Amino acid sequence: MNDAREVCWVCRKAQVMCYCQGLKPFASNPRFVILIHPKETKKAINTGRMAFRCLSNSLLLVGDRFDNDPRLRSILADAANRCFVLFPGINATDVSAVKDCGKQDVFIVLDATWSMAKKMYRDSECLRALPQVMFTPPKKSGFLIRQQPGVHCYSTLETIHHIIDTREPSPQGEHHQMLTLFNEMVSQQITYEIENRNA
């Protein structure tokens, strides 16, 4: 098999595009639970999985309904946690308005297309029962290799980075490394596609 076609079964990208060596996992505050729709797991370029590998204290769950997931139920039932679901709506609060209350804040992020995310939210009573949060991205998404549904739509990794940055706006923050890794992956993918197209 051609080396360019060999796959890293950890990040699920071609070996020439593997980003595993650039990973520097760290524990974030707040914590994140990433809910990935099964259809998204089939895509080699999945920023939810990349974000999960960047965050040593995150949880990744695959599915389209989560009411009966014991791991999520355990987190939601823990009195030490204050949980939110990132989902826009008239009742959603801007993440910048969520202030520390002495509990561990946990943000649940849906990794899916907008139509799939709406169905995941609708079909999971445990998610609908949570306070909703949202934000308006301050700039255009850098996810140039995937078509976004709107100008102000972020990938899952960019979303998580923004939430951390809202809570911990430090230029030296560990969370910036995940965005650096993401940007390098996008740039490398674009270069690879251009080179192969020219060849």
Structure explained in plain terms:
The protein has helices spanning 47-54, 70-77, 114-122, 125-128, 156-167, 176-198, and strands spanning 31-36, 59-62, 81-86, 93-94, 104-111, 132-134. The chain is α/β, with parallel strands linked by helices and 199 residues long. Strands 2-1-5-3-6-4 form a 6-stranded parallel sheet, sandwiched between helices. β1 (31-36), α1 (47-54) and β2 form a beta-alpha-beta unit. α1 packs across α5 (156-167).
What are the defining features of this structure?
single chain; 199 residues; alpha/beta; six-stranded parallel β-sheet; 32% helix
Summarize the structure.
It is built from six helices and six strands. It has 199 residues and is α/β, with parallel strands linked by helices.
Largest sheet: 6 strands, parallel
Summed over residues and divided by their number, the pLDDT gives a mean of: 88
Residue ranges: pLDDT <50 for 5 or more in a row?
none
Number of strands: 6
- N-to-C span: 19 Å
Provide the β-strand percentage band.
5-15%
Structural class: alpha/beta
Task: Report the order of strands and helices.
Answer: EHEHEEEHHEHH
Portion in helices:
25-40%
Topology:
Layout lengths: L30 E6 L10 H8 L4 E4 L7 H8 L3 E6 L6 E2 L9 E8 L2 H9 L2 H4 L3 E3 L21 H12 L8 H23 L1
Helix pairs in contact: 1-5, 5-6
